[in-house]
Write a structure and sequence with these properties.
Elements (H helix, E strand, L loop, with lengths): L7 H22 L16 H15 L7 E5 L5 H10 L2 E6 L2 H13 L6 E5 L13 E7 L8 H11 E14 L6 H14 L6 H11 L1 E8 L1 H27 L5 H18 L3 E10 L2
Parallel strand pairs: 1-2, 1-4, 2-3, 4-5
Antiparallel strand pairs: 5-7, 6-7
């Protein structure tokens, strides 16, 4: 579906540019998350739903204060800070964007968890800053989709995890391998615009097994995040004409315009059943 290599510098450029848009959203919501919100009966507002996604993943991983968590693709650090605040867990966040890491450190200071959080520039395909057998949990909230080489990520996760460690991710995955030409085009738009390589959920399960992980559990959260995807779709449809005009006079970038279209395509793919949002956890056993 997508053969072009994913350039880490290109991913950094995309998200550093999109921060201009995200920061406006953060002001309205009061938090710095970039991910989809998980809606349920108790979490019905966008900000609450975004925090709920973190809660659901933490509960699935049985996070507690004894854990040392490696947050791969930590972004602006919202989930790292949340785990430190909610559980008193020690969290190491890695990201390839210095801009986002600076925001993460500021976020930790503002919430008085600097002593529990560390943020480092590192590619989760390499994890050069993380020692062998040094963490209890590898955590990835919409991070694994940024990898063109999932097996390499899982190899590094296994290296840094302690013998009884565990891994957990939430992300968008395709449900089937055989996609229509329309769906392939839409996923290509998403991949190119958001610096991702959307994979297949069964392929990811098989990659976990091949890497030596056991007790693999897959939970479909699509119904809970569909409202969040639809909100992004509605915003993109409303904002797209105006952004196009602003682009003509240099007031916005093609990156931001492309991201609008990508978010619209994500919703279309979710609505049509091609994409699902899954929570996947597994254990490491020797």
């Amino acid at each position: 579906m997508e053969s072009r290599d994913l350039d880490p510098d290109e991913v950094v450029d995309i998200y550093d540019e999109l921060l201009k848009t995200y920061e406006k959203e953060w002001e309205q919501r009061g938090h710095r998350s970039l991910h989809f919100g998980y809606y349920d009966e108790e979490h019905t507002e966008p900000g609450e739903a975004s925090m709920n996604t973190m809660r659901v993943l933490s509960e699935a991983l049985d996070i507690d204060e004894s854990d040392r968590i490696l947050n791969i693709g930590c972004g602006a650090g919202e989930d790292s800070v949340w785990n430190a605040r909610a559980y008193g867990a020690e969290v190491v966040g890695v990201n390839i964007s210095e801009t986002q890491l600076d925001i993460a450190r500021k976020n930790a200071r503002e919430h008085d968890v600097s002593e529990l959080t560390t943020f480092a520039k590192d590619d989760f395909h390499d994890l050069d800053t993380v020692d062998d057998d040094s963490v209890d949990v590898v955590w990835g909230l919409e991070a694994i989709s940024h990898s063109p080489d999932v097996s390499r990520v899982l190899e590094q996760a296994k290296r840094v995890l302690r013998a009884d460690g565990r891994i957990g991710v939430t992300d968008m995955f395709t449900r089937a391998l055989d996609l229509s030409s329309t769906d392939r085009d839409r996923i290509r738009t998403v991949n190119e615009s958001l610096g991702v390589r959307v994979g297949n959920v069964d392929d990811f399960r098989e990659a976990l097994e091949a890497a030596g992980f056991t007790n693999i559990r897959v939970r479909d959260l699509t119904e809970g995040v569909e409202e969040s995807a639809e909100q992004r779709y509605r915003f993109s449809r409303m904002a797209h004409p105006g952004y196009r005009l602003l682009g003509l006079v240099g007031r916005t970038s093609e990156t931001q315009i492309d991201a609008l279209e990508a978010n619209a395509d994500i919703y279309r793919l979710v609505r049509d059943g091609t994409l699902g949002y899954f929570l996947i956890t597994a254990d490491l056993s020797e």
